[in-house]
Design goal:
Length: 592
């Protein structure tokens, strides 16, 4: 038998030997995982509750990609068995170094080994997208006088303030009468939500309190169950309205059993917070990938923002460099990890936050680490107490559309929050979003062409900097079959909307300004100022033209003419400023 085995080995081709080696590697590493997870620390303008453990079974090794050219790092990890809701050992994901040339099997003139598929284990627990809390909007951007229409997870909802219960309510955005949108309605003088179509009124529980067309002495049809609006469970946490996307009565008190993700720093009064929200014309998956990817910042946002200090030796103009990223835990609830001095956590489906301690803040660059040598003890202690948190809430809206609510919470240098108007900081933050918006929209279209389930085959991600992105895709594949569950309805197919013209794609007014109270107020004020300047210009010209030369001194006439010219020029400059910062600001990478 031994002789036969030797003869078989001698007769084997190099390709067969190589394939055999990969098979043996796979068998020896049966507990290996195909992905790392990394953390992203974008700083838009300025730039922990433990996860529950769930039993995880890894059935086969998975690799990112292989090419027959120079060897790349292989992905490996150590694993431990998880017990549901029981703290225990966690997984640590790392990247091993490339094998030395002496131990590398030659791949010359040999096709690469077959790439193992990233399969979903059907025995694993599946993520239920309709049994989670979703953030809707920051309270600071909601007007209590009017209802607000929003879409989350493909569901049209209306958010309104119930002054009788002194709380925010979330209803299905359809009147039970003829399905007219309640978001087009009003809050009546009794504090009820009134449909603008036929005047039906609803209280905070969704009960119909008035049907004007029903006779007062007739049947009390407004008390029928079919006359009630569909009310979703809702709560305010971290100064945001959250809702539970299920109107079944069994979830009426779901807040007593399950709460939205809690971030201690966001409820700490010693932390000042900066908020911004924007509707994004690409999907939740691509949005979250982008948030988790720090390596794109010096390139996609060149000249707009910086994170971290540049490398000592630059390989290009932008200063890209290797990033050391490690994921420490991944389960159905998300993952946590580290990126150098930063800790990060993704709590499925929407919440991602990154916190630094200690941190020093200077200009628009984050500088980390201990204070410089020579710093006195009092100042050193002050720096050590400084904490900063970057938070991101990535909300699935519909296929090809998402909403991003993000900001910063910090317990130092809060004085500038009261000096710099919020809308000015939003202008800078929107430039960051615009600088890679078109790239990501097109990227999503290409991903859909190959199919989300084939993402790991279409994309080549060999470095640590993509670890969180790969980890998120693995989480999505493992617990949700590689895509969002939109439920049964018009979005169940997941088809993306067509690509609009670039100017419409990157429009700021409908994606942000109308949804932001600060920017909306500034927009109205600046437009009013523009009209005032135009009036001053016209009036000055009229007075100078209508008055006889002898009635006004030459100096006064010249002053009026100058005022007219200055007023007109200022109005045109202001119009350009308004358009560029509140409507459309293109970012051309070829010219940066």
């Amino acid at each position: 038998m031994t002789t036969n085995f030797k003869n078989i080995v001698k007769a084997a081709t190099p390709h067969q030997l190589q394939t055999t080696k990969y098979s043996l590697q796979a068998a020896a590493n049966q507990s290996a995982m195909e992905a790392l997870i990394a953390s992203y620390v974008p700083s838009f303008f300025y730039i922990p509750k433990p996860l529950h453990d769930h039993k995880t079974h890894v059935t086969k090794p998975n690799f990112i990609n292989f090419h027959q050219s120079s060897p790349i790092p292989s992905w490996s990890f150590s694993s431990s068995t998880y017990k549901k809701n029981t703290p225990g050992p966690f997984k640590v994901f790392t990247i091993s170094s490339p094998p030395s040339s002496s131990s590398t099997v030659s791949t010359e003139n040999t096709p690469p080994p077959p790439e193992p598929e990233l399969e979903t284990d059907n025995k694993e627990e599946k993520f239920d997208w309709f049994s989670e809390w979703y953030p809707v909007m920051p309270v600071c951007d909601l007007d209590k006088r009017v209802p607000h229409g929003k879409k989350v997870l493909g569901i049209d909802i209306v958010v309104w303030w119930d002054k009788n219960e002194n709380s925010w309510k979330v209803f299905d955005d359809a009147c039970p009468h003829r399905l007219a949108p309640l978001s087009d309605g009003r809050i009546d003088k009794l504090g009820r939500l009134q449909c603008a179509y036929h005047g039906w009124c609803f209280n905070g529980s969704g009960d119909c309190k008035l049907i004007p067309q029903a006779p007062l002495d007739g049947p009390q049809v407004h008390t029928f169950k079919k006359a009630c609006a569909r009310a979703y469970p809702s709560v305010v946490q971290h100064e945001m309205v959250w809702f539970w996307p299920n109107t079944d009565p069994e979830y009426k008190d779901i807040i007593t059993k399950k709460k939205p993700p809690f971030i201690p720093e966001m409820d700490d009064p010693s932390f000042s917070k900066f908020w911004i929200n924007r509707d994004i014309p690409y999907g939740y998956e691509v949005l979250l990938e982008n948030i988790l990817d720090p390596a794109h910042v010096p390139y996609a946002h060149y000249g707009v923002m910086e994170i971290d200090q540049p490398p000592k030796v630059k390989v290009d103009r932008e200063g890209g460099k290797p990033l050391d990223i490690v994921v420490e835990q991944l389960d159905i609830n998300g993952f946590s990890g580290k990126h150098l001095w930063d800790s990060a956590k993704f709590v499925a489906p929407c919440t991602y936050y990154n916190y630094n301690d200690p941190v020093a803040f200077q200009s628009n660059i984050l500088l980390h680490g201990p204070p410089p040598a020579g710093t006195d003890h009092k100042k050193k202690k002050l720096v050590e107490q400084q904490r900063m948190l970057l938070f991101f809430f990535c909300i699935p809206v519909s296929p090809g559309n998402s909403r991003l609510i993000w900001g910063i919470a910090k317990n130092f240098n809060s004085w500038n929050d009261n000096i710099i108007p919020r809308w000015i900081r939003h202008i800078v933050s929107n430039i960051v979003v615009d600088s890679d918006l078109h790239l990501l929209h097109i990227e999503e279209q290409k991903i859909m062409e190959v199919g989300p389930a084939n993402w790991h085959k279409a994309c080549f991600v060999p470095t640590k900097s993509d670890a969180f992105v790969v980890g998120f895709r693995r989480w999505l594949n493992k617990y949700s079959d590689g895509q969002i569950n939109w439920g049964v309805g018009k979005f169940s197919s997941g088809t993306l909307p067509p690509t609009p013209p670039r100017q419409q794609l990157m429009d700021r007014y409908w994606s942000h300004v109308v949804n932001c109270r600060s920017c909306s107020c500034a927009y109205k004020s600046l437009n009013a100022l523009q009209v005032v300047l135009q009036v001053i210009s016209i009036v000055s010209i009229g007075i100078a033209a209508a008055t006889k030369q002898s009635a006004i001194p030459a100096i006064a006439r010249t002053a009026m003419a100058s005022m007219a010219v200055i007023g007109f020029a200022a109005s045109r400059l202001l119009a350009h400023f308004i358009y560029k910062n509140f409507h459309y600001h293109d970012y051309d990478h070829t010219l940066h």
